[in-house]
Hints:
This protein has seven helices and three strands. By secondary structure, the protein is an alpha/beta fold. Helix 1 runs antiparallel to helix 4 and helix 2 packs across helix 3. The protein starts with a strand and ends with a helix.
Amino acid sequence: xxxxxxxxxxxxxxxxxxxxxxxxxxxxxxxxxxxxxxxxxxxxxxxxxxxxxxxxxxxxxxxxxxxxxxxxxxxxxxxxxxxxxxxxxxxxxxxxxxxxxxxxxxxxxxxxxxxxxxxxxxxxxxxxxxxxxxxxxxxxxxxxxxxxx
Length: 149
């Protein structure tokens, strides 16, 4: 019943070599909306409305420290490549050309690798594609969904 999937600034299914001090810094910000907003701001290239950034910080601050820590640990140390079952799904991977976390080559060779039908769309943004280029982002999604029918 699933006809396709969209991965936004997609995370590879293999471990990501984030520095341990970066993980500790991010986890140490849990519950603090202002400090969590700083992380989002570090990964934007284009201006983002203050109200949008405030909302991101508020929502991120709701995550418990243990949940944030375990999520990052899983990303850093676990692989789920062998557990991917829907490899033949139409897949759209949306990323930013200025993204230092998952740059275009990481999307091509890490994220897209398990999906032979993957198409990568790169926008002129950083890691926070949906808030940096919301119209272009929405247009990519609409076109992808329309192509599935």
